[in-house]
Amino acid sequence: MLGKGVVGGGGGTKAPKPSFVSYVRPEEIHTNEKEVTEKEVTLHLLPGEQLLCEASTVLKYVQEDSCQRGICGKLVCTDFKIAFLGDDESALDTDEIQFKNKVIGENDITLHSVDQIYGVFDEKKKTLFGQLKKYPEKLIIHCKDLRVFHFCLRYTKEEEVKRIVSGIIHHTLAPKLLKRLFLFSYATAVQNHTATDPKNHTVMFDTLEDWCWELERTKGSMKYKAVSVNEGYKVCERLPAYFVVPTPLSEENVSRFQGHGIPIWCWSCHNGCALLKMSALPKEQDDGILQIQKSFLDGIYRIIHRPPYEIVKTEDLSSNFLSLQDIQTAYCKFKQLFLIDNSTEFWDTDIKWFSLLESSSWLDIIRRCLKKAIEIIECLEAQNMNVLLLEENASDLCCLVSSLVQVMMDPHCRTRAGFQSLVQKEWIMGGHCFLDRCNHLRQSDKEEHQRHLSLPLTQSKSSPKRGFFREETDHLIKNLLGKRISKLINSSDELQDNFREFYEGWHSKPTDYHGLLLPHVEGPEIKVWAQRYLRWIPEAQILGGGTVATMSKLLEMMEEVQSLQEKIEERHHRQEALQAEAPSLLRNSARLSSLFPFALLQRHSSKPVLPISGWKALGDEEDLAKREDEFVDLGDV
Amino acid sequence: MASAPTSKYNSHSLENESIKRTSRDGINRDPAEAVPRLPGETRITDKEVIYICPFNGPIKGRVYITNYRLYLRSLETDSALILDVPLGVISRIEKMGGATSRGENSYGLDITCKDMRNLRFALKQEGHSRRDMFEILTRYAFPLAHSLPIFAFLNEEKFNVDGWTVYNPVEEYRRQGLPNHHWRITFINKCYGLCDTYPALLVVPFRATDEDLKRVATFRSRNRIPVLSWIHPENKTVIVRCSQPLVGMSGKRNKDDEKYLDVIRETNRQISKLTIYDARPSVNAVANKATGGGYESDDAYHNTELLFLDIHNIHVMRESLKKVKDIVYPNVEESHWLSSLESTHWLEHIKLVLTGAIQVADKVSSGKSSVLVHCSDGWDRTAQLTSLAMLMLDSFYRSIEGFEILVQKEWISFGHKFASRIGHGDKNHADADRSPIFLQFIDCVWQMSKQFPTAFEFNERFLITILDHLYSCRFGTFLYNCESAREKQKVTERTVSLWSLINSNKDTFKNPFYTKEINRVLYPVASMRHLELWVNYYIRWNPRIKQQQPNPVEQRYMELLALRDEYIKRLEELQLANSAKLSDPSTSPSSPSQMLPHVQTHF
Which stretches make up the Myotubularin phosphatase domain (chain A) (predicted)? Predict the structure, then answer.
């Protein structure tokens, strides 16, 4: 939730390029070197940030070659973050400073990234919340970004322990007022809004023009129009001020049910078919009202079923797809697999890793989301149908499915600016309830749901491969058949065949990376996104390996080609002046960790990590295991 | 190899069309010219069959059988399927159905292959075509049972590189800096008199006489005495391999063996103990005492530390791979993929083998102690551990030729029983001696190359090619159980080496990302979080699960490489033109290498 301005906040006067990762180029750091080293011991506050409480002689545990070491320092809590100010100055050589985060330091935990806080009392780990009667010897903080911090409070003064522990618990776990969120005081303190680079402009979709621009870009303006009926949120607070509907739809239709029951345009395909979404009409018992609703919907469907509109397939995401609860339950189990306290826990879970993964169902959910998006694409692309996504508020699974469809179909969404614009369009303007879903206000009764920004990334990781569907899919597709489509197509087998043909047909052809991209959805192809989930686990680091190794080779080669290009230009201009070599970002590529850039700041020796747990029982193979490799007749030796 | 309909074969659709028409007319025009044939390969027969493809259903085709391969070409217009299977991969041929069953597909053959697939054919009842095909296939797939030569002895292929010269033990030991003050080369096994499963040339401690070696041999299973595999170039710690000591139930001791181990320990002066890695689970090592084997006990071997690595035996590995096949062929287990994969234990075994090798490598690399590795006989798990540890320690073995030398040395020359484990030309498919130990090693190498994508000169294709020819019987490389048997059969004179094929087409097997780094020790992470099933090998017959070749990053890199070369060329041309004009030595252009100070890739 950090705006573009924040990136500049920690650094100097230089206008930074907007980026969703605030890792900075080394040149920027080198100019501020003094500031950087100081930052290790003194608390660095953002504009508008206030120190709330602190405690000295706290030990932070770090994992080192499978044993723990403590660093002594000060633990502080501000209205933005919990920070540990360590006395450890040994870390950070130049390589490591290169990719330091400007806003959130190695030992900073923003209040909103705190997931769970545990206290250790007499070697026992307990969840902490509310008022404490007894204060723990050790504080363990699990973060939403999967970092795990261990702080030892045994050497801290009692009243400081009380102050810091209750301070942290209060500021991270107690319900909050919206206006108290740090970003407001930050925004007040930082007034200057840095200009964005027009080339990498993110479309915010907060003006009529932005929507018109998107309609033009996707050539949807023939059949759809941007409307300003909700200007000032007169009709509905849930909907953005401006959005797009089918051209013949009247504005009063929109206001009739506060925007419910209205097909809202998401995106137009190159063949003119569109992806639409609709929030369901409120559920009513009263027959009279139901009659009114029915005739209203009939009227709406009449509009979008007439030419020039394509046949519409309705995809009811509320009843025929994953439930939000499924997703939440799965993610809770899944993330637990990565919140690892120590080496022993890592290796203990390693033996049953695959079954643990499977029992979380997370990868299966990812697969079903990808599959659903492909199904919708098949309708749009191969069957020339419009697809109308239907969901209670059209702000959860609609956001997920529609943005996945666009990432796969629209190469613009795979550029950085395009992806940011997509998030802005489908998630921010699409009314996804980030506050509730991420529980930023810490309301205990609100259900938390993971937003799915991780999904497109997961997908792009699994490079396109051929696919395979079986009975389960058949079953799924049967469930998915909306009423309308069943009128069009006689048998579900036919639909499945169409789908399979489309999917396999695409995978059998060479890939055009600037066109449609379909991910693989077979079991062996859906893998854990290691770069995100394993990034803070030292045992999982491959020193000098991982995909980072090939990527940095690629970048090196790109640099080399660029410098050659420049030299040729120079030659052409007969300028023989020597040009200084641009410093390479990834000089030491061979020594980068597979978890780069996340794990850079954790120091590691080159010692191998060795599993420290034993072998699981073989079960039915016990008798085989006891056999000799071959018959040995050693009697006469 | 089975291919799904691809654009490559679509161009042949016209040809297929014509085949179909002529066969309908009853004219048997034979398109056999299009069947690939190696020099020395002879046609035996051809038959019209129905290939029951597990992915695309029954396909009518014509099968050609030679003394080397089974080749099937589809006779249907909409399918361009081709099967090209060396008979060597066949492990079992069974008849399915018969007179009692009905329908066109009733007279069937089911062929089980060693490379994770089955082939099913249906034949016509008339003319005993199934019986013919069954007998011919049995004869040529299992030549040993019919007193026929293995195809490698008939193969007349010529290559411009001779793969048999790749490995020269003297040269390899010299590369390691041997002999030196502490280690000598002995020819005691020149005629395989000391140990018939060891190579002729051995490296042993300088202080141990040939007489000592003979006495040690009596106390080691199958006389496989501790000999040097690898020496660390700096700290001079060594990896030594052998078989188990013949301790037996009574706990026998052998002073010569004890002294010999102490001599090995002392070759590296800094250390007080010799580390012994017994690859077996400790219970198995104890149990082996009952059959005369055992392990080095503390009281007998004072200056040693014994550690068990818990790697299971060949039978467990064989069953594990069977289970892998069950979940990937023909259909990939979809709904519970991960737990099914876990239940095969295959990756767990891989993890243990890698973990063992990491321990060996770390012990040696850290200079803490020399290492002695054994299992029962020292030709399965021992070979896996020493070769993997050497791959981690010595970057030379990560090059194409280095890897060939590693396989040639640690596996072929030290008597990994390829003939028994693979069953070349042998019909006894249920033989308990068969086990995918070498495949497991190659899988470990693949896992390493996955974790360190820039550290190996070779690519995945290289590894798959090795595995394909492990079974194919086209080359002599993997034939027989040990060097003495190979020598007796004059394998190097009478057959072609697999390395001839590979080294004369090296470019196809190169990893473009390879960055040569000397003295870099590679420690893979032996965690299930990083180990994955080798889809491109184990599931390669499934056309629906096909990795993109080449992968997008590699493709991009190749494009950049080409671009760089073009620019360098252009720059040189510009410089030439420039210097010709000026003809002034002081402004003559610098060489490309000077101009590109940060070129880190070596090509």
Answer: 205-533
Task: Give the tens place of pLDDT for each residue, B277-332.
Answer: 999 999 999 999 999 999 999 999 999 999 999 999 999 999 999 999 999 999 99
Query: Which residue in A564, A581, A628 is closest to B564 by CB distance?
Result: A564
**Residue B384 DSSP SS3:** helix
Query: Are residue B455 and residue B419 in the same domain, yes or no?
Result: yes
**Binning pLDDT at 50, 70 and 90, where does residue A96 land?**
low
Is B482 known to be catalytic?
Answer: no
Q: Interface pTM (ipTM) of the complex?
A: 0.85
Start-end of H helices in A218-271? 251-256
B198 and B289 in a common domain: yes
Which residue bears the tokens 């029992």? Answer: A359
State whether B416 and B532 are in the same domain. yes
Please answer whether residues A485 and A479 qualify as being in contact, where contact means their C-beta atoms are separated by less than 8 angstroms: no
Check whether residue B127 and residue B173 sit in a common domain.
Answer: no
Q: List the single residue in A with minimal CA-CA distance to B280.
A: A625
Cα–Cα distance, B463 to B406 (Å, whole number): 13
Residues 413-452 of B with CB under 8 A from A: 420, 432-433, 451-452
Residues B289, B385, B412: CA angle, nearest 5 degrees: 95
Contacts of B467 (CB under 8 A, 6+ apart): B115, B439, B442, B537
Q: Where are the domains of chain A?
A: 51-88+102-183, 208-438
- The half-sphere exposure of B266 on its side-chain side, counting CA atoms within 13 A, is 10
**Which amino acid belongs to residue A609?**
V
Assess if residue B31 is contained within a domain.
no
Query: Interhelix angle for B437-451 vs B381-393, to 10°?
Result: 20
In terms of domains, do B95 and B177 share one?
no
Please tell me the distance from the alpha carbon of residue B201 to that of residue B186, in angstroms, as a whole number. 6
Angle at A182 between CA A335 and CA A598, to 5 degrees: 40
Are B368 and B287 part of one and the same domain?
Answer: yes
Q: Tell me: the pLDDT tens digits for A413-430?
A: 999 999 999 999 999 999
Q: Domain residues for B47?
A: 37-148
Cβ–Cβ < 8 Å for B87, B112: no
The larger pLDDT score, comparing residue A465 to residue B76, is at B76
Out of B288, B453, B529, whose CB is closest to A350? B529
Residue B581 lies inside a defined structural domain of this protein:
no
Count of structural domains, chain B: 2
> Across the interface, do B544 and A466 touch by the CB < 8 Å criterion?
yes
Of the candidate CATH numbers 2.30.30.320, 1.10.760.10, 2.30.29.30, 2.60.40.10, the domain formed by A51-88+102-183 belongs to: 2.30.29.30
3-state DSSP of B223-258: HCCCEEEEECCCCCCEEEECCCECCCCCCCCCHHHH
Q: How many C-beta atoms surround the C-beta of residue B46 within 10 A? A: 20
pTM to 2 decimals? 0.87
Cα separation of B281 and B285, whole Å?
7
Rounded to 5°, the CA angle B17-B20-B25 comes to 130
Q: In the numeric block, which tokens belong to residue A571? A: 């030659």
Strand partners, A543: A593
Active-site residue identified among B242, B375, B444, B482:
B375
Residue B219 and residue B138 share a domain: no
Q: Which of A352, A354, A570, A571 to mutate to test the interface with B (most CBs of B within 10 A)?
A: A354
The verdict on B53 and B130 lying in the same domain is yes
